[in-house]
Amino acid sequence: MSDCPMTIFGKKMLETELNQLIRVERENIKQAISEARELGDLKENAEYAAAKERQSIIEGKIMDLQSKLARAKVIDVSTLNTKKIVFGATVTIYDQQKEMEFTYQLVGEDEASHDPKKISFNSPLGRALIGKEVGDEITVKAPKGDLNYEVLSLKYS
Q1: What is the value of pTM for the model shown?
Q2: CB neighbours of 41 closer than 8 A, spacing ≥ 6?
Q3: 19-30 burial, b for 16+ CB within 10 Å, e for fewer?
């Protein structure tokens, strides 16, 4: 299994979600299963089947989050000091096709999925940015053609 890099904020976010699943969702589903059992024959009990399916989904999410947290490699972005773009950097780029500036922070996949100003370091743009410096131009291969960007600024905070 590989490390799962994440920022301090990303780890707290996953811990909060895990806590919600264990303390609230798991308890709610136990209650739903208990109530559904009281309705009688389990073979023809749609409420019971739905509750068991929901329980399976919740337990799968719990296992996934526990695995990610066990493999977490937490990176304190505020301690980074380099001129190259690395995980956790906040980067402002200029999109040459759209003639617009965009600012993104390179984070882990789970963190990126919750915030449009954050992109995964594993995304095509994230991979292209890693190792670059201010002033560098990058090209990202996309289905609709090459996308060209220029790195305008870089900060770690």
Answers
A1: 0.80
A2: none
A3: eebeeebeeebe
Parent domain of 130: 77-155
Do 98 and 129 reside in the same domain of the chain?
yes
How many domains does the structure of the chain reveal? 2
Q: Are residues 44 and 69 in the same domain?
A: yes
Element (H, E) at 15: helix 8-20
| Structural domain ending residue among the three candidates 75, 106, 125 | 75
pLDDT digits 0-9 by tens, 76-101: 988 888 899 999 999 999 999 999 99
Reference 95, options 33, 152, 27; nearest CA is 152
The answer to whether 101 and 152 are in contact (CB under 8 A) is yes
